[in-house]
Specification:
The radius of gyration is 21 Å and the shape is globular. The chain has 2 domains: about 10-30 and about 270-370, Aspartate Aminotransferase, domain 1 (Alpha-Beta Complex); about 35-265, Type I PLP-dependent aspartate aminotransferase-like (Major domain) (Aspartate Aminotransferase, domain 2, 3-Layer(aba) Sandwich), CATH 3.40.640.10. It is α/β, with parallel strands linked by helices. The protein is built from 14 helices and 14 strands. The protein has a 7-stranded mixed sheet, sandwiched between helices. The structure holds pyridoxal-5'-phosphate (PLP). Pyridoxal-5'-phosphate binds near residues 85 and 157. Pyridoxal-5'-phosphate (PLP) binds near residues 111, 185 and 216.
């Protein structure tokens, strides 16, 4: 495990030594942004650290409602609801949608918050092969009695793949399903306006697609949200005990999130540089002979059959002043993953250094050949 003693940006300090950093999920480099930090400090000065109550009791403040309006504008939806964390989002949404589905079809690499978010009264849970619409269709065909809900990560947290939402959506129309996309890693990253996977696939007008989102990754802050029409947000506010019985998002996070959403809407050049950087790394690692699942997201995993190989490569990079963490994470992929992540604030020089060191390692170790890729 990495223990830092600095802010997390394109550089990081470990034991007071500075390293070039290609880890975490700070895709737009906002986690250390001065405007966000100033917003948080001002908010603490005005509102303190915590409203110390659930939203529907005394925990809602003017800054929550302002943030929700801003998020609705960002997402081009009627309304939005913010709550304590992205992790809570799947539970909140799946509860609010209760009555609209009786079975769940879930990608096998789904994030743990999806698996744990399925309400206990849903007994029919079918797991389809990772990113495999044909297998999903087989399951939908064979289990066609109830009302299906299909759930998937939008961008997979470990492999960086984009779920085939276009194909899943076509199936949803054929089989009368609703879709939930966990867009934790897509918000701010995918789509012209950073609205995530539906925008990426030009599916924003589809009325049967729901998203769960977080401010903790590209947003650089913390806190979960769901945007949608008023019927949906009303159900969340009425029906979800996770939402109703948890303390509201604290003031500094609410105010920093509002600053972050404003930046994500106004500064589209952040997404442009992110996509330039991620393309350089994906093309670069492939050219060197590494295999990776990632094609157009900032999560660029190098996957190995042997734990030792992933650990060794991570250590080798560290010896050369670069941190790319070997990831231990509760998503069962059966692989050992060195997870390179890129942000819009990485410099071309940093990317060049990363590729140069990866080049040295593969020249010396490429013959081991225990890499995995689809
Ligand atoms: C796919 C996915 N969903 C949900 C979450 C939880 O979001 P948060 O960490 O903001 O609570 C994460 C991240 O950690 C994630 O990767």
């Amino acid at each position: 495990m990495i223990v830092s003693n600095s802010a997390v940006s394109n550089y990081i300090c470990l034991h007071d030594k500075v390293y070039s950093f290609f880890g975490g999920n700070n895709y737009l480099g906002l986690a250390d942004n001065p405007l966000l930090k100033r917003a948080a400090i001002n908010s603490i000065e005005k509102y303190g650290l915590n409203f110390a109550a659930a939203r529907q009791t005394t925990g809602t403040s003017e800054i929550h409602t302002e943030l929700e309006k801003l998020l609705a504008t960002f997402k081009n939806k009627e309304d939005a609801v913010v709550f304590g964390s992205g992790y809570m989002g799947n539970r909140i949404l799946l509860t609010a949608l209760g009555g609209n589905y009786s079975s769940v079809f879930m990608d096998e690499f789904s994030h743990s918050s999806i698996k744990e978010g399925i309400p206990s009264d849903i007994s029919e849970i079918l797991v389809y092969n990772h990113c495999d619409p044909d297998h999903l269709e087989g399951l939908l065909k064979a289990n066609n009695k109830g009302k299906p809900l299909i759930i998937t990560d939008g961008v997979f947290s470990l492999t960086g793949e984009i779920a085939p939402l276009d194909k899943i959506h076509a199936l949803s129309e054929k089989y009368g399903a609703i879709i939930v996309v966990d867009d934790a890693h897509s918000t701010g990253v995918l789509g012209k306006n950073g609205r995530g996977t539906p925008e990426h696939f030009n599916l924003e007008s589809a009325t049967n697609i729901y998203q769960t989102e977080t401010m903790s990754k590209a947003g650089g802050v913390y806190g979960g949200f769901i945007a949608g029409d008023r019927e949906l947000t009303g159900k969340i506010r009425e029906k979800s005990s996770t939402y109703l019985a948890s303390t509201s998002l604290p003031p500094p996070l609410v105010s920093a999130s509002a600053a972050s959403v404003t930046i994500m809407m106004q500064h589209t050049e952040l997404r442009t540089s992110l996509h330039r950087n991620l393309k350089m790394i994906i093309d670069g690692v492939r050219k060197l002979g590494y295999l990776t699942f990632s094609r157009e997201t900032p999560i660029i995993p190098l996957c190995f059959k042997l734990k030792e190989t992933a650990e060794e490569l991570s250590e080798f990079l560290k010896e050369h002043g670069i941190i790319v963490p070997f990831i231990i994470y509760p998503v069962n992929t059966g692989m050992y993953v060195l997870r390179i992540t890129v942000s819009s604030v990485h410099t071309l020089e940093q990317i060049g250094e990363l590729l140069a060191v990866l080049g040295i390692w593969i020249n010396d170790n490429g013959s081991r050949n225990d890499q995995i890729c689809c």
